[in-house]
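Record type: monomer structure entry
Structure origin: computed from sequence
Chain ID: A
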Amino acid sequence: MDILMKSELGKQDKDPRILWEEDLQPATSILQILTQSSNLGKSDIKKIAYIKQVPGGNTQIYGAPVFDKQWRLNLKGPFPSQRKRNMQVRRAPLQIPTESQIDTDVEEDFMPETKSSLEKQLGKKRANLKSAEEPEEKNWERLFQAIYYHMREMLKTQIQKRNTGHSQPFQPLPFRALADLRYWSSEFATSPITDATDSRKPDLVLLDHRLRKLDSSEKSWKDVLTGIEITQSDLSSDRKIPLFLGIATKGYLMMREQPWRRFILLFSISKLKLRAHYIDRSGMVISEPLQIERFPVRFVDVLNTITLANRSSLGFDPTIHICNSCCTVPSHPNLPDGFDAMLPGAIGWVYDNDQN
């Protein structure tokens, strides 16, 4: 695959199909075009905290803030036991988890539920040991999940106020509806995504929340919504680092497995500088770097766009539905009007201009 990609890309820093905004100096960056801006302030970002749902109960544990002059990664024990509060949980029929319950499942694997005095004594040591041993990708996963949870809760409150006729409700977020649930995962950082032609380990991927309980072997490139690669190398000074080729290859694999998408949007964080890698069938555009610690609000706006906005923001064609690992069952949960079951051999459907 590397040989194929190198032959396709040619000289990475001179290929006419690869446009570097740092060279072009456009009036408006593609990152700005693709991102929906909010009315958030830096004070709003400082209110975001690491959070986890205690398994088996209705208690949330709020930990350290994720940002204070810099993004707080590699924290040991970010969940002090004194910062607990009860949470109201909506009941759903047939024991189906409510949206609120699903949303709060962001840190279930981080800190074990302490049910005995022995577990209470060992919990902190286990948490610290786990934090010290875990890879960098897991720390970024926790950060992104904390931001996603906080912003989704803010959006739900914003929508509720608007729907109840609240007089001049403040709307910090630019979205008017809740999109499908998603989650960040670093599960493939050490184990490649299953593929017959190549073996790639994306640092972080964004997936449909319905895939969360599936085994990694049951997920493929057709399920990846977007991804972020993390490196300490500087892409500004060396465009031939493995990060560049890796992102181009992952974009190719996604486009190959998801040909119905209009474009693929991937990201890289190099020396705490975020870049968008916009990939379509004509080439790739790499945005100017965004210093994520200097501009935390813009960074959160980018994350919100890819997690809270509808899928068209990620290049999906809203007139096409192709079944993936979430819905490859005979009784499809979201069939078009007039259909009771999937036709034999069907893998999806296409809407015409009249939405039929």
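Annotation 1: The chain is about 30% helix and 15% strand.
Annotation 2: Residues 136-163 form the longest helix (28 residues).
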